[in-house]
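re: that complex we talked abt at group meeting.

here r the seqs, copy pasted straight from the sheet so there may be weird spacing, ignore it
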Amino acid sequence: MCIRANRNQPDDVKRRMADCAAGEDSATAKEVFKQLLENIDLAAETGLALCQDCGLAVFFVEVGQDARVEGDLNEAINEGVRQGYQEGYLRKSACDPFTRKNTGDNTPAVVHYDIVPGDKLRIAFMAKGGGAENMSRVTMLAPAEGWEGIKKFVLTRVAESRSNPCPPIIIGIGIGGTFEHSAKLAKKALLRKLDDVNPDPDLAAKEAELLGLVNALGIGPMGLGGKTTALGLKMLVSPCHIASLPLAVNIQCHSSRHEEVEL
Amino acid sequence: MATYELTAPLSDADARKLRSGDIVYLSGTIYTARDAAHKKLNDMLDAGEKLPIDLQGAVIYYVGPTPPPPGYVIGSAGPTTSYRMDSFAPRLHSLGAKGSIGKGIRNDAVKKSLKDYGAVYFGATGGAGALLSVCIKEAEVVAFPEMGPEALRRLKVERLPLLVINDSVGGELYVQPDLKAVGL
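got the structure back, here u go
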């Protein structure tokens, strides 16, 4: 799973890149897209990683309440990461925050569990690179700031990030819940397919509006100017405290590497 | 905007003639270093120790490659975000380094040091690590092997495709976000 994700760009991302490349007027933006698409083909052919930053290993695990897992699920996930990053010639990027000593095997993975109805085990893996993650933020807006405040915060964040997170980016936005829940929603939003449409028409309209504004910033591929600053923008929303408007913006580079399996 | 074929280490004249927007196909010898290696080099300079590399004309590539699969000299090897090296770059330029390769914006102190010492900041395409690795013909760890992917490596490169982002006369290639267009 870790190996496949790091070598193969999902089809929805490839399709969106090709569409956006065709819509660019600037020769520089077209050239960046050309290199990125060549890189995707080369990685798939050679088995080289798409990007040298093979990310921290992030998992969203949905455990059916009727599923029975024998043994230590958490350890099994970490062992999978250990083997995948070793056997796939992937870079191990996990280190101690103070000593900066590399843990050597890209563990521990960051694992989020949800209990769901049913007897299935659904595991989604994401290779989350550090450059784009560094541009992400969580804030607690005042409720009165509302949608205008949300847009302003997201646009300011993307504008300040400029070329740092490897645009064209994908933006995951978590709105509501608590401080930490908004961040989890933002990350989970990055697992949505780029071509899906939010089933809530109001949220679908908000996603389209904000994506349009982000692209109006003109930062473009690699920050060199162009129409495509973001390939997609996805929101997940949850009710929050009457005093709060939590907002998380999780920025993902164009190399949106993720895989899902259901057992 | 011109296109150049250059060889590293870079001469003072080569570095100074480059302008933002120029395309450079870089061949020759360059060094890899990112966060941890920069800190270590800085600590060595503070302690008055001799550095493990010659900085005269040096081009430093901000990259931490993936391990080479069998039959490859290096794995995927694209640029990392450069601002994290901003606090170290001016000192390296003052000691003779003529260029760095990365992605993302640099701070004013780095841009000033490019002017002061006649150096350049190159951008490589971020997230094109497999494609860029094809231009790397030899790779050897020359210092700090304990840092793993962050070790200091000497690379032999052939026609590594780069864009001049910041030049030695204050030019900048990255666009400013159009804040007015979005009402900011």
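couple things i noticed - The longest helix of chain A spans residues 27-46. The beta strands of chain A are 56-64, 110-116, 121-128, 137-141, 169-177, 230-240, 245-252, 258-262.
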